[in-house]
Amino acid sequence: MKPDFCEYCNSPIESDEKLVTIYRHRNGKHFIFERVPARVCSRCGERYFSATAVREMDRLMQKKTSRSSMRAVPVIELKLAG
Questions:
Q1: What is the model's pTM?
Q2: Residue 8's pLDDT is what?
């Protein structure tokens, strides 16, 4: 089987999946998904997800029931001197 190549740096992407954390934003809400399987480019770090993983994250973001946990996250506005 021919290897896949990263669309950003054109390096071969390993077939082994790693578990990564994903931050998603939809309709004014923020979601954090942990332990998401992804193929990761070893050169630039671009992540590639299976269609199954993406569909499941979309399904869970649309779900109206309570999530497994809620966490407070500080929001900091960056103002640079200038």
A1: 0.77
A2: 96
